[in-house]
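Lay summary. Proteins are chains of building blocks that fold into shapes, and those shapes determine what they do. In this project we predict the shape from the chain. Here is one chain we studied, written as its sequence of building blocks.
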Amino acid sequence: MFTGIVQAKVKVSEISDQEQFRRLTLEVPVQLLQNLERGASISVNGTCLTATEFNLQLPLGKVSFDVIDETLVKTNLGDLTVGSLVNFERSLTFGREIGGHLVSGHVHGTAKILAVTLTGANWRVDIELKPEFKNYVLSKGFISIDGISLTVGEVTATSFSLHLIPETLDVTTLGQRVAGDRVNIELDQQTVTIVDTVERVLAAKSL
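And here is the predicted shape, written in a compact code that computers can read:
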């Protein structure tokens, strides 16, 4: 479980294709790897991955993950190359502030950025709204984009918007995103549960 508050944007240092998976290695500030254990869960672009190897060399440590084909296809991790930047967050621990919303790291799918508009120091990002997500993306509701907890702005039949402050652009990879890029989408699980439950109840009553 994660908070959607990205701790750092970090660089992909190595990618190697194995027989049934791809090994992804990141360069990470060593202070973010303190007390890390093999098997720990880490959010990489909003995707929950399992740390398989790591070292704590100064100033940049390294942590590796084995990513299966299904994850590479369903998320944008398959688009990464050496040098790509990704959003990094360690898993939530007791006593840590939840500044965003609870994020599982189970990505529902990807969507394409349609437009990026700069207004003063702030950015507006418009993202395609796929039919399977329509019932769950609500104005002023939560959504996770590449692991970032964000508030939905306007919603149309085919898109939704995000309004980003300079801090978000600086700390996360969204400041480097352009139209046409794919981003990972995780819907707010509370919204999904409520909408699906109401639909089932209404469907049962109509029988």
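What the prediction tells us: The first strand starts at residue 8 and ends at 17.
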